[in-house]
Amino acid sequence: MPDDPKAFPEAPAEVPWYHWVWVVPVALGLRLWLATLRVSTNIPKADDSDGPVVILLWHDKLFVSSLIANRHFSRPITALISTSKDGAWLVAFFRVMGLTAVRGSSNRRGAAALIALTRRMRAGSHAGITPDGPKGPARKFKTGAISLARLTGRPFVTMGLRYHHCWRLRSWDQFALPLPFSRVDAIFTTEATPAENESDEAIAARLEERLNAGSV
């Protein structure tokens, strides 16, 4: 009997090796861009000695996520990135920024990504998730991150980001790029591990409200 294709999900797209000739210089240029930003936070440094957390932010704020995450958290961070070609370029950028990635989404390799993230968290890494990714709707919270928190028994940290001046792309999420030398406010809030008697939908609605309140 032929193998079931659903049992062997298509491999994630990768950046071809020969593209790294210009990926690295571009990524380094973006690091210089990020270094010009004036970032303020409501909590200067997270105390993550008690263990890893599930970090949440909206997809349109990914550009500054690596900068702020590296400054704010002491533990390593594993980001959930889609299996698409766009995701491959994002993984390449994150690699230069010092972040690792697990590939998957709600539509492709979701179960495999959930298992991989669970293992990374149990090994001590934070997990970074954009709950409206990879294709939206923008700022609508999907429940995959809640499944991860339930499996690991770990809390959430929402990362709301406010750009005082930015450009926005014509993408599904209106991806934002803060202007060089502009100000970025990062607002962190902690949400306890999901209660067994509370529905995923209720938790998603509360976290969506928190992320929207902290993001502009």
Number of separate helices: 6
Q: Mind telling me the C-alpha Rg?
A: 17 Å
CATH class: Alpha Beta
Q: Per the principal axes of the C-alpha atoms, what is the gross shape? A: globular
Question: If you had to describe this structure to a student in words, what would you say it looks like?
Answer:
This protein is of the alpha/beta class and 216 residues long. The chain has a single domain (40-214), classed as Rossmann fold, CATH 3.40.50. The chain is 36% helix and 20% strand. It has six helices and nine strands. The chain has helices spanning 20-35, 62-72, 85-97, 110-122, 144-152, 200-214; strands at 38-41, 54-56, 77-81, 100-103, 126-129, 156-163, 166-168, 176-178, 183-191. Strands 1-9-6-2-5-3-4 form a seven-stranded mixed β-sheet, with helices on both faces. A two-stranded antiparallel ribbon has the order 7-8. β3 (77-81), α3 (85-97) and β4 form a beta-alpha-beta unit. α1 packs across α3 and α4 runs parallel beside α5 (144-152). The chain is globular, with a radius of gyration of 17 Å.
